[in-house]
Specification:
alpha/beta; Peroxisomal Thiolase, Chain A, domain 1; 2 domains; 9 helices; 12 strands; 23% strand; globular
């Protein structure tokens, strides 16, 4: 049995400084999109989703503050967790992200530990895979729990698109939603964290990740010479379904990292047409970026936090959730979640 259960969460977003606040706002489709101090090429103010902390921190300092707050919330909501014996897997922006802070990976974990006044296990690591970091962290967490004997693992992600070089680069590539481009995303920032463990003996339902799959898409969002067939996402979905031993028709709704670009919606539609073999009257698509903006590496743990809240509060469309993520480099991931009574390993 290699399922992982999500038992606690924390989140800092443009619509809330905690997981309950953020998830409630996302459930109600509330956003906090506002004009920024950046101007697009049409002379209009760029719209973004910024996190309103108590002080105007920027850059690395703000990333540390956001990550520490989300991690602290996840820990506080699950008593009995020993941080020194708990690895922290932290997702951050890809190494080639335009405008990425120099040396972002170096010392970031230490800075977060210093902010929290805690030390995490030596197996802690930074995963620089952007939006798919959360899924990679789930895979690594499974190894840490089942092969290395850890009781708990913290999965977190922190990211921000709100820097001049980043915004300028994505606007130049016609990726941002601006006054002159309707096919783009609204930049955002935030952090999220979830605590996972192996299934425990309990009669209460637990949110378990029962299947994981990965793939690589050659026809990436900026590749103009290749036709998009969603091969990478299809590969990831099929691998996750195979691991879970179920069909996609058994999932009740979809939870994704889609943030506004037509390419990714088209890819999701193509992958669905190639993997769903039984007609479903409804298969609704949830995309939290509609409320919190494009949050990069934070979106994976944020999706898990949304799934946990929807499952525990009973406003999800069923117990089984199909999640998928993809980054600009072509890496794709799929995760199948199920809110059910799970037997202990």
């Amino acid at each position: 049995m290699t399922a992982l259960c999500i038992i606690g969460s924390g989140m800092v977003s443009a619509v809330g400084l905690s997981a309950p606040a953020s998830c409630a706002a996302i459930r109600c489709a509330i956003d906090n999109f506002q004009e920024t101090r950046f101007i697009d090429r049409g002379g209009e103010w760029l719209i973004a989703a910024s996190v309103p902390l108590e002080q105007p921190w920027r850059g690395r300092s703000k990333l540390v503050k956001m990550a520490a707050r989300a991690i602290a919330e996840a820990l506080q909501g699950t008593p009995g967790v020993d941080p020194e014996n708990t690895p922290l897997l932290l997702g951050v922006a890809e190494a080639d992200r335009p405008g990425r802070l120099d040396g972002l990976d170096l010392g970031l974990l230490h800075d977060i530990e210093h902010e929290l006044g805690l030390r995490f296990h030596g197996s802690s690591n930074v995963i620089a895979r952007g939006r798919v970091s959360g899924a990679v962290a789930l895979l690594n967490a499974r190894k840490l729990i089942y092969q290395q004997g850890h009781r708990h693992v913290l999965i977190a992600g922190v990211d921000s698109f709100l820097s001049g070089p980043t915004l300028a680069a994505f606007e130049e590539r016609e990726r941002l939603l601006t006054s002159q481009n309707s096919n783009g995303f609204i930049p955002g920032e935030g952090a999220a964290a979830v605590l996972v463990n192996a299934p425990t003996a309990s009669e209460a339902p637990q949110l378990a990740c029962i299947g994981l799959g990965f793939g690589v898409e050659k026809a990436t969002v900026e590749a103009e010479d290749l036709p998009l067939r969603a091969d990478g996402l299809t590969q990831a979905v099929r691998a996750a379904l195979s691991e879970a031993g179920c069909g996609l028709e058994q999932m009740d709704y979809r939870l994704t990292d889609l943030s506004g670009e037509q390419y990714y919606f088209k890819e999701a539609s193509l992958a669905l047409s190639r993997t769903l073999r039984v007609r479903k009257e409804f298969f609704h698509l949830w995309h939290p970026a509609d409320c919190i903006g494009e949050t990069g590496a934070a979106i994976g743990p944020a999706m898990l936090a949304v799934a946990l809240a929807a499952s525990r509060k009973g406003y999800g469309e069923g117990p089984n959730i199909f999640c998928h993520l993809g980054n600009d480099a072509g890496q794709r991931a799929a995760a199948l979640l199920s809110y059910q009574t799970v037997r202990a390993a």
